[in-house]
Amino acid sequence: xGPTLIAMxxxxxxxxxxxxxxxxxxxxxxxxxxxxxxxLMGAAGGAAAQASAHPLDVIRRRMQMQSMNAGEKKKDxxxxxxxxxxxxxxxxxxxxxxxxEGVHVLFNGLGxxxxxxxxxxxxxxxxxxxxxxxxxxSSV
Length: 140
Fold this sequence. Notes:
By secondary structure, the chain is an all-alpha fold. The protein has 5 helices and no strands.
């Protein structure tokens, strides 16, 4: 639960910050934001958020697999098997992977993750803006 929460906060923060910043700049320099622009801004926010939180997701998944495989490790006493590294926390995992495997490993799978998140984020922000207009609510 802890690693999941740690990965969630920067994701949501970056997503909303990028979206709102792009929207405010568009309104200041271009004018009212249209449908396509809202979708693109939501997509950009989703992509930035995914890129910023992906390393945390990689370590979170490794930590989950490490706890799932703990029982199998006791059964398997093969000396030729590669020793799995155990991460005590998210920061230790980030440091260890970056140092031993390279920082690029923390971004493995970013493309498919963005492919999943970008459309839903774009549509989500479009609906968010639609509901703000419908309910006559303004942003802070």
